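Escalation from tier 1.

The customer reports that the assembly of two entities below gives different C-alpha coordinates on two consecutive runs. Tier 1 could not reproduce it. I'm attaching the input and our single run for tier 2 to review.
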Amino acid sequence: MVVTRFAPSPTGYLHIGGLRTALLSYLWARRNNGKFLLRIEDTDFSRNDEAAALAIVEAFKWVGLEHDGVIEYQSSRLAIYQEYAQKLLDEGKAYKCYMSKEELEALREEQTARKERAKYDNRYRDFTGEAPEGREAVIRIKAPLEGSITVHDGVKGDVVFNVADILDDFIIARSDGTPTYNFVVAVDDALMGVTDVIRGDDHLSNTPKQIVVYNALGFPIPRFFHVPMIHNHEGKKLSKRDGATDVMMYKTLGYTPEALLNFLVRLGWSHGDQEIFSMTEMLELFDPSDINRSASVYNVEKLDWLNSHYIKNTPNEKLCELLEFHGVVLISHDKREIILDAIKERAKTLVEMAALITEMLTRPEVFDEAALKKGYKEESKAILESFAEALKNASELHLPSDYHHVMEEVVGKLEIGFGKIGQPLRIALMGKLSGPGLDSVMAIIGVDETLARIDALLAHQ
RNA sequence: GGCCCCAUCAUCUAAUGGUUAGGAUUCCAGAUUUUCAUUCUGGCCAUACGAGUUCGAAUCUCGUUGGGGUCACCA
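Tier 1 run:
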Protein backbone atom coordinates (compact mmCIF):
# COMPACT_ATOMS: atom_id res chain seq x y z
CA MET A 1 0.00 0.00 0.00
CA VAL A 2 1.36 3.38 -1.02
CA VAL A 3 0.13 6.37 0.95
CA THR A 4 1.15 9.87 -0.09
CA ARG A 5 0.03 13.23 1.16
CA PHE A 6 -0.04 16.90 0.33
CA ALA A 7 0.55 19.02 3.40
CA PRO A 8 0.39 22.73 2.66
CA SER A 9 0.39 25.50 5.19
CA PRO A 10 -2.67 27.69 4.81
CA THR A 11 -1.48 30.65 2.80
CA GLY A 12 -4.76 31.53 1.17
CA TYR A 13 -4.42 29.85 -2.20
CA LEU A 14 -2.84 26.88 -3.90
CA HIS A 15 0.56 27.75 -5.26
CA ILE A 16 1.63 26.44 -8.65
CA GLY A 17 4.63 24.70 -7.07
CA GLY A 18 2.34 23.14 -4.52
CA LEU A 19 0.11 21.85 -7.27
CA ARG A 20 3.07 20.12 -8.84
CA THR A 21 4.06 18.20 -5.71
CA ALA A 22 0.38 17.48 -5.09
CA LEU A 23 0.05 16.14 -8.62
CA LEU A 24 3.10 13.92 -8.31
CA SER A 25 1.92 12.60 -4.96
CA TYR A 26 -1.52 12.00 -6.38
CA LEU A 27 -0.19 10.17 -9.44
CA TRP A 28 2.02 7.90 -7.41
CA ALA A 29 -0.74 7.03 -4.96
CA ARG A 30 -3.29 6.34 -7.68
CA ARG A 31 -0.89 4.38 -9.79
CA ASN A 32 -0.39 2.05 -6.86
CA ASN A 33 -4.04 1.94 -5.89
CA GLY A 34 -3.00 3.68 -2.71
CA LYS A 35 -4.20 6.73 -0.90
CA PHE A 36 -3.55 10.43 -1.38
CA LEU A 37 -4.18 12.41 1.79
CA LEU A 38 -4.61 16.11 2.42
CA ARG A 39 -3.42 17.72 5.61
CA ILE A 40 -3.41 21.38 6.52
CA GLU A 41 -0.36 22.45 8.46
CA ASP A 42 -1.84 25.13 10.65
CA THR A 43 -0.01 24.77 13.93
CA ASP A 44 0.98 28.41 13.85
CA PHE A 45 -2.22 30.05 15.01
CA SER A 46 -0.97 33.53 14.31
CA ARG A 47 -1.44 32.94 10.63
CA ASN A 48 -4.27 30.53 10.52
CA ASP A 49 -6.72 30.96 7.72
CA GLU A 50 -9.96 29.05 7.50
CA ALA A 51 -10.59 29.92 3.88
CA ALA A 52 -7.20 28.61 2.88
CA ALA A 53 -8.17 24.95 2.98
CA LEU A 54 -11.25 25.71 0.97
CA ALA A 55 -9.15 27.45 -1.64
CA ILE A 56 -6.98 24.37 -1.97
CA VAL A 57 -9.94 22.08 -2.34
CA GLU A 58 -11.43 24.40 -4.94
CA ALA A 59 -8.22 24.31 -6.94
CA PHE A 60 -8.01 20.54 -6.60
CA LYS A 61 -11.51 20.30 -7.89
CA TRP A 62 -10.76 22.48 -10.89
CA VAL A 63 -7.78 20.40 -12.00
CA GLY A 64 -9.45 17.14 -11.10
CA LEU A 65 -7.29 16.00 -8.21
CA GLU A 66 -9.12 14.25 -5.46
CA HIS A 67 -7.79 13.46 -2.03
CA ASP A 68 -8.86 10.49 0.04
CA GLY A 69 -10.48 10.63 3.41
CA VAL A 70 -11.16 13.73 5.42
CA ILE A 71 -8.96 16.80 5.45
CA GLU A 72 -6.80 16.67 8.54
CA TYR A 73 -6.16 19.95 10.32
CA GLN A 74 -3.20 19.95 12.60
CA SER A 75 -4.83 22.59 14.71
CA SER A 76 -7.42 20.01 15.73
CA ARG A 77 -4.86 17.34 16.54
CA LEU A 78 -3.10 19.18 19.33
CA ALA A 79 -3.99 16.56 21.95
CA ILE A 80 -2.24 13.93 19.85
CA TYR A 81 0.97 15.90 19.66
CA GLN A 82 0.86 16.56 23.38
CA GLU A 83 0.47 12.88 24.02
CA TYR A 84 3.53 12.02 21.96
CA ALA A 85 5.56 14.83 23.42
CA GLN A 86 4.66 13.55 26.87
CA LYS A 87 5.67 10.06 25.82
CA LEU A 88 9.10 11.30 24.87
CA LEU A 89 9.32 13.20 28.13
CA ASP A 90 8.39 10.08 30.10
CA GLU A 91 10.94 8.00 28.27
CA GLY A 92 13.66 10.55 28.82
CA LYS A 93 13.96 11.21 25.08
CA ALA A 94 12.86 14.80 25.48
CA TYR A 95 13.09 17.32 28.27
CA LYS A 96 11.83 20.65 29.47
CA CYS A 97 14.01 23.63 28.84
CA TYR A 98 13.47 26.77 30.87
CA MET A 99 15.68 29.07 28.90
CA SER A 100 13.93 32.30 28.01
CA LYS A 101 13.72 33.71 24.54
CA GLU A 102 16.01 36.52 25.62
CA GLU A 103 18.63 34.13 26.94
CA LEU A 104 18.43 32.12 23.77
CA GLU A 105 18.82 35.25 21.73
CA ALA A 106 21.84 36.31 23.75
CA LEU A 107 23.43 32.90 23.35
CA ARG A 108 22.96 33.08 19.63
CA GLU A 109 24.51 36.51 19.40
CA GLU A 110 27.52 35.37 21.38
CA GLN A 111 28.01 32.36 19.17
CA THR A 112 27.60 34.36 16.03
CA ALA A 113 30.13 36.91 17.28
CA ARG A 114 32.57 34.05 17.77
CA LYS A 115 31.74 32.92 14.23
CA GLU A 116 30.31 29.72 15.57
CA ARG A 117 27.17 28.04 14.44
CA ALA A 118 24.20 29.23 16.47
CA LYS A 119 22.92 26.26 18.39
CA TYR A 120 21.33 25.42 21.71
CA ASP A 121 23.92 24.61 24.35
CA ASN A 122 22.05 21.71 25.96
CA ARG A 123 21.98 23.47 29.32
CA TYR A 124 18.79 21.74 30.42
CA ARG A 125 19.46 18.43 28.73
CA ASP A 126 20.28 16.68 31.98
CA PHE A 127 18.67 19.13 34.35
CA THR A 128 17.01 17.45 37.33
CA GLY A 129 16.48 20.36 39.70
CA GLU A 130 13.42 22.43 40.47
CA ALA A 131 11.84 24.40 37.69
CA PRO A 132 12.83 28.05 37.88
CA GLU A 133 10.13 30.34 39.22
CA GLY A 134 7.80 31.90 36.68
CA ARG A 135 9.28 30.29 33.61
CA GLU A 136 7.25 28.53 30.97
CA ALA A 137 9.17 25.60 29.57
CA VAL A 138 9.60 24.52 25.99
CA ILE A 139 10.10 20.85 25.23
CA ARG A 140 13.28 19.91 23.44
CA ILE A 141 14.03 16.56 21.92
CA LYS A 142 17.34 14.84 22.63
CA ALA A 143 19.06 14.78 19.29
CA PRO A 144 22.13 12.65 18.70
CA LEU A 145 25.31 14.43 19.75
CA GLU A 146 27.59 12.90 17.17
CA GLY A 147 27.68 10.74 14.11
CA SER A 148 25.63 11.30 11.02
CA ILE A 149 22.13 10.95 9.68
CA THR A 150 21.56 9.69 6.18
CA VAL A 151 18.46 10.58 4.22
CA HIS A 152 17.77 7.90 1.64
CA ASP A 153 16.16 10.05 -0.99
CA GLY A 154 14.55 8.62 -4.09
CA VAL A 155 15.53 11.65 -6.12
CA LYS A 156 18.81 12.89 -4.68
CA GLY A 157 20.26 9.58 -3.58
CA ASP A 158 21.75 9.12 -0.13
CA VAL A 159 22.35 12.46 1.51
CA VAL A 160 24.58 12.37 4.56
CA PHE A 161 24.33 15.04 7.23
CA ASN A 162 26.92 15.39 9.93
CA VAL A 163 25.07 15.76 13.22
CA ALA A 164 27.58 18.22 14.62
CA ASP A 165 27.02 20.52 11.64
CA ILE A 166 23.28 20.75 11.61
CA LEU A 167 21.58 19.44 14.70
CA ASP A 168 20.86 20.55 18.21
CA ASP A 169 18.14 19.64 20.70
CA PHE A 170 15.45 21.40 18.76
CA ILE A 171 12.15 22.50 20.21
CA ILE A 172 9.19 20.21 19.65
CA ALA A 173 6.71 22.14 21.79
CA ARG A 174 6.65 25.87 22.34
CA SER A 175 6.24 27.46 25.78
CA ASP A 176 2.52 27.83 25.10
CA GLY A 177 2.33 24.09 24.58
CA THR A 178 1.78 24.14 20.82
CA PRO A 179 3.95 21.78 18.81
CA THR A 180 6.41 22.80 16.12
CA TYR A 181 6.60 21.84 12.50
CA ASN A 182 9.32 19.22 12.37
CA PHE A 183 7.69 17.34 15.20
CA VAL A 184 4.13 17.32 13.93
CA VAL A 185 5.12 16.46 10.38
CA ALA A 186 6.85 13.33 11.52
CA VAL A 187 4.13 12.39 13.99
CA ASP A 188 1.35 12.93 11.47
CA ASP A 189 3.05 11.22 8.57
CA ALA A 190 3.67 8.22 10.79
CA LEU A 191 0.19 8.16 12.31
CA MET A 192 -1.50 8.63 8.98
CA GLY A 193 0.48 5.78 7.52
CA VAL A 194 2.28 7.85 4.90
CA THR A 195 4.75 5.60 3.09
CA ASP A 196 6.04 7.99 0.43
CA VAL A 197 6.76 11.63 1.14
CA ILE A 198 6.97 13.62 -2.10
CA ARG A 199 7.71 17.28 -1.42
CA GLY A 200 9.86 20.22 -2.50
CA ASP A 201 13.58 19.92 -1.96
CA ASP A 202 13.52 22.99 0.25
CA HIS A 203 12.51 20.42 2.88
CA LEU A 204 15.58 18.28 2.40
CA SER A 205 17.49 19.99 5.16
CA ASN A 206 14.56 19.52 7.55
CA THR A 207 14.52 15.82 6.98
CA PRO A 208 17.27 14.85 9.46
CA LYS A 209 15.28 16.50 12.23
CA GLN A 210 12.20 14.59 11.26
CA ILE A 211 14.21 11.40 11.22
CA VAL A 212 15.28 12.16 14.79
CA VAL A 213 11.59 12.29 15.72
CA TYR A 214 10.75 9.09 13.84
CA ASN A 215 13.57 7.32 15.64
CA ALA A 216 12.69 8.64 19.07
CA LEU A 217 9.11 7.51 18.66
CA GLY A 218 10.05 4.21 17.08
CA PHE A 219 8.15 4.96 13.88
CA PRO A 220 9.24 3.51 10.54
CA ILE A 221 10.85 6.05 8.23
CA PRO A 222 8.99 6.62 4.96
CA ARG A 223 10.51 6.86 1.51
CA PHE A 224 11.45 10.42 0.66
CA PHE A 225 11.39 12.08 -2.73
CA HIS A 226 12.61 15.65 -2.69
CA VAL A 227 11.47 17.30 -5.87
CA PRO A 228 13.60 20.16 -7.21
CA MET A 229 12.22 23.68 -7.03
CA ILE A 230 10.57 25.57 -9.82
CA HIS A 231 12.54 28.73 -10.52
CA ASN A 232 11.60 32.01 -12.12
CA HIS A 233 13.52 33.62 -14.95
CA GLU A 234 16.07 34.98 -12.51
CA GLY A 235 16.74 31.46 -11.32
CA LYS A 236 15.19 32.09 -7.92
CA LYS A 237 12.45 30.25 -6.12
CA LEU A 238 9.07 31.11 -7.62
CA SER A 239 7.28 33.75 -5.58
CA LYS A 240 4.21 35.92 -5.74
CA ARG A 241 6.09 38.60 -7.60
CA ASP A 242 6.55 36.28 -10.54
CA GLY A 243 3.05 36.71 -11.85
CA ALA A 244 0.53 33.93 -11.73
CA THR A 245 1.38 31.61 -8.88
CA ASP A 246 -2.19 31.06 -7.72
CA VAL A 247 -3.53 28.01 -9.50
CA MET A 248 -6.99 29.53 -9.86
CA MET A 249 -5.44 32.43 -11.78
CA TYR A 250 -4.86 29.96 -14.58
CA LYS A 251 -8.54 29.33 -14.85
CA THR A 252 -9.14 33.06 -15.09
CA LEU A 253 -6.42 33.40 -17.71
CA GLY A 254 -8.08 30.78 -19.88
CA TYR A 255 -5.87 27.75 -19.38
CA THR A 256 -7.30 24.27 -19.27
CA PRO A 257 -6.51 21.99 -16.34
CA GLU A 258 -5.19 19.36 -18.77
CA ALA A 259 -2.62 21.78 -20.16
CA LEU A 260 -1.54 22.97 -16.72
CA LEU A 261 -1.11 19.46 -15.38
CA ASN A 262 0.68 18.33 -18.52
CA PHE A 263 2.99 21.33 -18.21
CA LEU A 264 3.73 20.69 -14.56
CA VAL A 265 4.37 16.99 -14.90
CA ARG A 266 7.01 17.70 -17.55
CA LEU A 267 8.91 20.02 -15.24
CA GLY A 268 11.59 17.78 -13.83
CA TRP A 269 10.18 14.60 -15.22
CA SER A 270 10.02 13.09 -18.68
CA HIS A 271 9.31 9.91 -20.51
CA GLY A 272 11.55 9.74 -23.55
CA ASP A 273 10.52 12.30 -26.13
CA GLN A 274 6.86 12.37 -25.17
CA GLU A 275 5.41 15.83 -24.59
CA ILE A 276 1.69 15.23 -24.41
CA PHE A 277 0.40 13.28 -21.47
CA SER A 278 -3.22 12.60 -20.71
CA MET A 279 -4.11 11.93 -17.09
CA THR A 280 -4.39 8.26 -18.01
CA GLU A 281 -0.88 8.24 -19.44
CA MET A 282 0.58 10.09 -16.46
CA LEU A 283 -1.03 7.52 -14.23
CA GLU A 284 0.51 4.71 -16.22
CA LEU A 285 3.97 6.16 -16.56
CA PHE A 286 4.83 8.34 -13.59
CA ASP A 287 7.38 7.08 -11.13
CA PRO A 288 8.96 9.44 -8.59
CA SER A 289 12.33 7.77 -8.91
CA ASP A 290 12.49 9.16 -12.47
CA ILE A 291 12.33 12.74 -11.23
CA ASN A 292 15.31 14.90 -12.21
CA ARG A 293 17.68 16.26 -9.64
CA SER A 294 17.98 19.80 -10.92
CA ALA A 295 15.65 22.76 -10.63
CA SER A 296 13.71 23.91 -13.66
CA VAL A 297 12.72 27.31 -14.85
CA TYR A 298 9.08 28.16 -15.14
CA ASN A 299 8.51 29.08 -18.74
CA VAL A 300 5.05 30.09 -19.89
CA GLU A 301 5.65 29.67 -23.61
CA LYS A 302 5.45 25.92 -23.39
CA LEU A 303 2.31 26.17 -21.30
CA ASP A 304 0.77 28.31 -24.04
CA TRP A 305 1.69 25.75 -26.64
CA LEU A 306 0.21 22.94 -24.59
CA ASN A 307 -2.89 24.96 -23.93
CA SER A 308 -3.51 25.64 -27.60
CA HIS A 309 -2.92 21.98 -28.27
CA TYR A 310 -5.56 21.00 -25.76
CA ILE A 311 -8.00 23.61 -27.02
CA LYS A 312 -7.66 22.28 -30.55
CA ASN A 313 -8.31 18.78 -29.32
CA THR A 314 -11.23 19.50 -27.05
CA PRO A 315 -14.67 18.55 -28.35
CA ASN A 316 -16.87 21.54 -29.18
CA GLU A 317 -19.44 20.58 -26.64
CA LYS A 318 -16.85 20.77 -23.89
CA LEU A 319 -15.41 24.04 -25.22
CA CYS A 320 -18.87 25.46 -25.15
CA GLU A 321 -19.10 24.74 -21.42
CA LEU A 322 -15.64 26.12 -20.69
CA LEU A 323 -16.34 29.32 -22.60
CA GLU A 324 -19.27 30.20 -20.39
CA PHE A 325 -16.87 30.97 -17.56
CA HIS A 326 -15.34 33.56 -19.88
CA GLY A 327 -18.64 35.19 -20.69
CA VAL A 328 -19.47 33.57 -24.01
CA VAL A 329 -22.68 31.57 -24.09
CA LEU A 330 -23.13 29.52 -27.24
CA ILE A 331 -25.23 26.68 -25.93
CA SER A 332 -28.31 27.71 -27.88
CA HIS A 333 -26.55 29.30 -30.83
CA ASP A 334 -27.51 27.39 -33.97
CA LYS A 335 -24.12 28.03 -35.58
CA ARG A 336 -22.02 27.04 -32.62
CA GLU A 337 -20.25 24.15 -34.37
CA ILE A 338 -19.09 26.45 -37.16
CA ILE A 339 -18.07 29.11 -34.68
CA LEU A 340 -16.01 26.76 -32.56
CA ASP A 341 -14.42 25.04 -35.54
CA ALA A 342 -13.44 28.39 -36.98
CA ILE A 343 -11.92 29.68 -33.73
CA LYS A 344 -10.42 26.76 -31.82
CA GLU A 345 -7.39 26.51 -34.11
CA ARG A 346 -6.40 30.11 -33.58
CA ALA A 347 -6.45 30.72 -29.85
CA LYS A 348 -3.83 30.03 -27.21
CA THR A 349 -6.26 30.47 -24.34
CA LEU A 350 -9.96 30.32 -23.69
CA VAL A 351 -9.84 34.04 -22.99
CA GLU A 352 -8.48 34.65 -26.47
CA MET A 353 -11.10 32.34 -27.87
CA ALA A 354 -13.88 34.19 -26.13
CA ALA A 355 -12.56 37.51 -27.40
CA LEU A 356 -12.28 36.21 -30.95
CA ILE A 357 -15.83 34.90 -30.89
CA THR A 358 -17.24 38.11 -29.48
CA GLU A 359 -15.34 40.11 -32.04
CA MET A 360 -16.70 38.03 -34.88
CA LEU A 361 -20.24 38.19 -33.64
CA THR A 362 -20.14 41.94 -33.23
CA ARG A 363 -20.43 44.34 -36.13
CA PRO A 364 -17.20 46.34 -36.39
CA GLU A 365 -17.54 49.86 -35.06
CA VAL A 366 -14.40 51.16 -36.71
CA PHE A 367 -12.45 50.15 -39.75
CA ASP A 368 -8.75 49.98 -39.26
CA GLU A 369 -7.11 52.83 -41.20
CA ALA A 370 -4.00 50.89 -42.16
CA ALA A 371 -6.16 48.01 -43.33
CA LEU A 372 -8.24 50.29 -45.50
CA LYS A 373 -5.18 51.80 -47.04
CA LYS A 374 -3.74 48.41 -47.80
CA GLY A 375 -6.83 46.43 -48.69
CA TYR A 376 -9.48 48.83 -49.96
CA LYS A 377 -8.73 49.92 -53.49
CA GLU A 378 -10.60 51.95 -56.08
CA GLU A 379 -12.25 48.92 -57.61
CA SER A 380 -13.24 47.47 -54.23
CA LYS A 381 -16.55 49.30 -54.08
CA ALA A 382 -17.79 47.76 -57.33
CA ILE A 383 -16.56 44.33 -56.33
CA LEU A 384 -18.32 44.45 -52.98
CA GLU A 385 -21.50 45.64 -54.67
CA SER A 386 -21.37 42.74 -57.12
CA PHE A 387 -20.80 40.34 -54.27
CA ALA A 388 -23.69 41.79 -52.29
CA GLU A 389 -25.90 41.44 -55.32
CA ALA A 390 -24.86 37.81 -55.79
CA LEU A 391 -25.61 37.12 -52.14
CA LYS A 392 -29.08 38.58 -52.47
CA ASN A 393 -29.80 36.37 -55.47
CA ALA A 394 -28.44 33.23 -53.89
CA SER A 395 -30.65 30.91 -51.93
CA GLU A 396 -30.10 28.29 -49.27
CA LEU A 397 -26.98 29.81 -47.82
CA HIS A 398 -26.07 27.89 -44.70
CA LEU A 399 -22.64 26.33 -44.69
CA PRO A 400 -19.28 28.03 -45.20
CA SER A 401 -19.03 26.15 -48.50
CA ASP A 402 -22.26 27.76 -49.71
CA TYR A 403 -20.74 31.19 -49.24
CA HIS A 404 -17.53 30.01 -50.76
CA HIS A 405 -19.39 29.10 -53.94
CA VAL A 406 -20.86 32.57 -54.17
CA MET A 407 -17.41 34.07 -53.80
CA GLU A 408 -16.06 31.78 -56.51
CA GLU A 409 -18.90 32.76 -58.76
CA VAL A 410 -18.26 36.48 -58.37
CA VAL A 411 -14.52 36.08 -58.74
CA GLY A 412 -15.06 34.09 -61.93
CA LYS A 413 -17.51 36.54 -63.40
CA LEU A 414 -15.37 39.58 -62.70
CA GLU A 415 -12.21 37.74 -63.68
CA ILE A 416 -10.31 38.77 -60.60
CA GLY A 417 -8.19 36.99 -57.97
CA PHE A 418 -9.57 36.01 -54.59
CA GLY A 419 -7.52 38.71 -52.92
CA LYS A 420 -9.41 41.44 -54.74
CA ILE A 421 -12.60 40.50 -53.02
CA GLY A 422 -11.13 38.92 -49.89
CA GLN A 423 -9.41 41.99 -48.54
CA PRO A 424 -12.26 44.52 -48.74
CA LEU A 425 -14.75 41.90 -47.66
CA ARG A 426 -12.63 41.09 -44.64
CA ILE A 427 -12.49 44.75 -43.70
CA ALA A 428 -16.26 44.93 -44.01
CA LEU A 429 -16.80 41.86 -41.86
CA MET A 430 -14.05 42.22 -39.27
CA GLY A 431 -12.91 45.82 -39.53
CA LYS A 432 -9.35 44.67 -40.16
CA LEU A 433 -7.26 42.39 -42.33
CA SER A 434 -6.98 39.34 -40.12
CA GLY A 435 -9.47 36.86 -38.83
CA PRO A 436 -11.11 33.52 -39.44
CA GLY A 437 -12.03 32.27 -42.91
CA LEU A 438 -14.48 34.62 -44.60
CA ASP A 439 -16.83 31.86 -45.63
CA SER A 440 -17.04 30.74 -42.00
CA VAL A 441 -17.68 34.25 -40.74
CA MET A 442 -20.48 34.77 -43.22
CA ALA A 443 -22.04 31.41 -42.49
CA ILE A 444 -22.01 32.32 -38.82
CA ILE A 445 -23.47 35.79 -39.02
CA GLY A 446 -25.81 35.01 -41.92
CA VAL A 447 -26.73 36.79 -45.13
CA ASP A 448 -28.51 39.77 -43.63
CA GLU A 449 -25.73 40.68 -41.25
CA THR A 450 -23.15 40.14 -44.00
CA LEU A 451 -25.00 42.55 -46.25
CA ALA A 452 -25.37 45.02 -43.41
CA ARG A 453 -21.64 44.98 -42.73
CA ILE A 454 -20.86 45.46 -46.41
CA ASP A 455 -23.29 48.38 -46.56
CA ALA A 456 -21.68 49.89 -43.48
CA LEU A 457 -18.27 49.83 -45.11
CA LEU A 458 -19.56 51.23 -48.38
CA ALA A 459 -21.33 54.01 -46.50
CA HIS A 460 -18.17 54.75 -44.57
CA GLN A 461 -16.02 55.11 -47.67
C1' G B 1 29.14 32.50 6.64
C1' G B 2 28.05 26.78 8.12
C1' C B 3 25.54 22.69 5.99
C1' C B 4 23.03 20.52 1.78
C1' C B 5 21.62 20.24 -3.37
C1' C B 6 22.39 21.21 -8.54
C1' A B 7 25.05 22.06 -13.52
C1' U B 8 23.39 19.25 -21.68
C1' C B 9 20.77 24.51 -26.77
C1' A B 10 17.48 30.88 -24.40
C1' U B 11 13.74 27.28 -21.93
C1' C B 12 11.74 21.99 -20.76
C1' U B 13 14.43 17.66 -21.53
C1' A B 14 16.78 12.59 -24.09
C1' A B 15 21.24 9.88 -24.52
C1' U B 16 23.50 0.42 -21.03
C1' G B 17 31.22 4.49 -20.82
C1' G B 18 31.17 4.12 -27.82
C1' U B 19 25.20 8.74 -31.24
C1' U B 20 27.09 13.45 -36.80
C1' A B 21 24.83 14.85 -28.58
C1' G B 22 18.17 13.42 -30.06
C1' G B 23 13.15 15.61 -29.22
C1' A B 24 9.94 19.76 -27.69
C1' U B 25 8.98 25.18 -26.85
C1' U B 26 10.72 29.99 -28.48
C1' C B 27 13.03 32.39 -32.69
C1' C B 28 14.18 32.54 -38.16
C1' A B 29 13.11 30.84 -43.30
C1' G B 30 10.07 28.30 -46.86
C1' A B 31 5.39 25.71 -48.30
C1' U B 32 0.01 25.59 -47.64
C1' U B 33 -3.93 29.33 -46.48
C1' U B 34 -7.93 35.08 -50.33
C1' U B 35 -5.65 37.44 -44.60
C1' C B 36 -4.07 36.21 -39.75
C1' A B 37 -3.62 31.85 -37.06
C1' U B 38 -3.22 26.59 -37.62
C1' U B 39 -0.57 22.74 -40.21
C1' C B 40 3.85 20.91 -42.78
C1' U B 41 9.17 21.27 -44.07
C1' G B 42 13.86 23.21 -43.02
C1' G B 43 17.38 26.19 -40.09
C1' C B 44 20.01 28.55 -35.75
C1' C B 45 21.48 27.19 -30.79
C1' A B 46 24.18 23.04 -25.66
C1' U B 47 27.50 18.90 -22.61
C1' A B 48 30.26 25.58 -17.22
C1' C B 49 35.83 25.13 -16.54
C1' G B 50 40.32 22.16 -15.24
C1' A B 51 42.60 17.73 -14.06
C1' G B 52 42.30 12.36 -13.49
C1' U B 53 40.52 7.11 -14.67
C1' U B 54 39.76 4.68 -19.60
C1' C B 55 41.44 2.36 -26.05
C1' G B 56 37.22 5.71 -25.54
C1' A B 57 33.85 10.49 -20.78
C1' A B 58 27.95 14.55 -21.36
C1' U B 59 28.12 10.00 -18.55
C1' C B 60 32.90 7.74 -13.39
C1' U B 61 36.46 10.51 -9.61
C1' C B 62 38.58 15.02 -7.70
C1' G B 63 39.00 20.18 -7.84
C1' U B 64 37.39 25.14 -9.52
C1' U B 65 33.57 28.33 -10.82
C1' G B 66 28.57 29.45 -10.97
C1' G B 67 23.54 28.90 -9.29
C1' G B 68 19.91 27.35 -5.73
C1' G B 69 18.05 25.75 -0.93
C1' U B 70 18.33 25.86 4.32
C1' C B 71 20.02 27.40 8.95
C1' A B 72 13.39 30.25 14.33
C1' C B 73 9.44 29.08 20.49
C1' C B 74 7.56 29.90 10.83
C1' A B 75 5.74 26.09 8.03
